[in-house]
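Hi there, hope your week has been kind to you so far. Please have a think about how the structure follows from the sequence. I've dropped the whole record in just underneath, so have a look:

_____
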Amino acid sequence: MHEVGGKCVFASEIDKFARLTYEHNFRKISSGIFDSGNFNQDITSPDLDYSKIPDFDILCAGFPCQPFSHAGLKRGFDDTRGTLFFNIKEIVKRKIEGNKLDKKILIPKVLLLENVKGFKNHDKGNTFKVVKRTLNDLGYEVASEVLNSKHFGVPQNRERIFIVAWFIDSVKKNSFKFPFGINERYEVIYDKNLRDKEAIKVKVGDILLKNSELKKLEKTEKKSYTISEKLWNGHKRRRLEHAEKGNGFGYSLFNRNSLYTSTISARYYKDGSEILIDQNDKKGKLYPPRKLHPIEAARLQGYPIDSWYEIPVSSNQAYKQFGNSVTIPVVKILAQEIKKQLL
């Protein structure tokens, strides 16, 4: 958002290590939120007065959908109680109610929400219905699409649903055209059917460190990113067992020429099995594969790690954060389109 001219006025983050990373990197960009107490820790805290949140144009949020199971049985706002979506709705509702009493209080124009690909089908589609109905009842038009990071210049097969909602009274638009990717000239692809053909071509090699760089980092950090023979044999054994049962579970191996990796997850720090980098040399010597270095994980999610972004936490915490993150170029293009089409 910042990269397309936005200014962050409030943020909330409950994980103490993510808070550390957030402040380390963003104090230099948005010092105001840290100095004014607007870097909040728990969005569900009864001590947080939603009416004191500064006015804003866009609300961005990701929220888990598990607590929603069997939602939609009741009608109305109570359907979302006990979920983080309830808090998102309450923040917006407070602004709308405040505006009725004082026109100087701004009603948020746009909401940008992100979730896992299966969100639309969660609980037989009830969860999505509840979210859409709640936003409609608040006065917002709703559009949603599943976007894949591999179409936005990063070599990662990561599908996520993005929900864009705009306040009908202040944004007089009937629709929102989603960007489905970018081409080699960094132009937006609006046609879903053309994204595979026209999207910018990238390879896993584009995010990998050179072998000499990796060796240097391993020496400095006094650790190896190559997995142990024991873990490697375990991965191979489990894959075989799953294959015999007809399951698709196991590890995923990639090399510099692979077009993309699997989706990096918050559990990547455990064994790295979803993205392992093949290290076998051409002489036929067999080495176990390696995990991504945190710098490579940052690049895989489109973080500006080679210019200004820094990792102030341990590798395990960094993997968790990158696995939980949105892919930066996807959100940047979305932000650009929201600004252009809706603001």
The first strand starts at residue 11 and ends at 12. The domain at 204-323 is CATH 3.90.120.10 (DNA Methylase; Chain A, domain 2). The mean pLDDT is 92.
